[in-house]
Design goal:
Order of helices and strands: EEEEHEEEEHEEEEEE
Shape: elongated
Structural class: mainly beta
Strand content: 35-45%
Number of strands: 14
Number of helices: 2
Length: 254
């Protein structure tokens, strides 16, 4: 079509010739239009895979950092997330672990152990000897000596009475009572000793009748603490006790 204008004669092309058509699809920004490949007549073209959705879905597997994507068509199933009985499930707060069975004697198997139970003394095979009897009162082990105070105060300096062995906080322990003290004990004092069959690090309290040593720490296999001698007279007895509050070699307790 020929048109006249102030700059002269020019030819105006119809809109159809410019490449834009009325029937063309509406352009949508960022839209992905998947086209199947063109083939010659009579030839079947392979279909392209379906477009992968980038939208969020409630059915999508849970994302766990450092764990492969979920199984099926999307990849392998991470261990502990497939619902099977053999799957390993991560659990927060494992509780406290402690050797099972005769744990104090070196069994390597482990089981759940409550902290209160861990610090509760365990009576072993022998709970009574000629020197006295053990009993557990809450988390305190009490050793009542067989002899009266008057008899004990006649024991030579440096001589002692030994309790049966017992277990607490993962170790085997024994209490020893020196009625008239040891070579380093002041006059009119008695001594209470604690020993372990292996090196350990324990935080504990010792008791002699109603008296307490306060909080003490044993590093190694032996510990000794002095007390004023028990009051003599009549049939008065002596009771030695211990409460273990922490095993520093098992920091998750205490």
């Amino acid at each position: 079509e020929v048109c006249w204008g102030w700059h002269g004669v020019y030819r105006r092309r119809p809109w159809a010739a410019s490449g834009m058509r009325v029937e063309a699809a509406v352009f949508v920004p960022a839209a992905v239009v998947q086209q199947q490949p063109q083939t010659s007549e009579g030839t079947e073209a392979p279909l392209l895979p379906p477009r992968v959705s980038k939208e969020l879905s409630a059915s999508s597997p849970e994302f766990v950092p450092g764990v492969p994507l979920a199984g099926g068509a999307d990849g392998p199933t991470p261990e502990g997330h497939d619902g099977s009985e053999s799957a390993t499930v991560a659990v927060e707060g494992y509780g406290h672990m402690m050797p099972a069975g005769r744990c104090l004697l070196g069994n390597d198997s482990y089981t759940y152990m409550d902290p209160r139970e861990f610090f509760t003394p365990v009576l072993l095979d022998t709970i009574s000897t000629e020197h006295g009897t053990l009993q557990v009162q809450g988390q305190r082990l009490c050793w009542e000596l067989a002899e009266a105070v008057d008899e004990l105060l006649q024991v030579p300096r440096g001589s002692c009475r030994e309790s049966p062995w017992f277990g607490v906080a993962g170790v085997r322990l024994q209490l020893t009572f020196f009625p008239t003290g040891t070579g380093l004990t002041d006059a009119a004092d008695s001594a209470v000793a604690l020993q372990s069959d292996e090196k350990t690090k324990l935080k504990f309290q010792l008791f002699l009748n109603q008296k307490t040593s306060g909080m003490k720490v044993m590093l190694g296999k032996k510990f000794s603490c002095d007390f004023r001698q028990p009051q003599a007279g009549g049939d008065a007895k002596v009771a030695v006790g211990i409460e273990v509050h922490e095993n520093l070699m098992h920091s998750w307790f205490g």
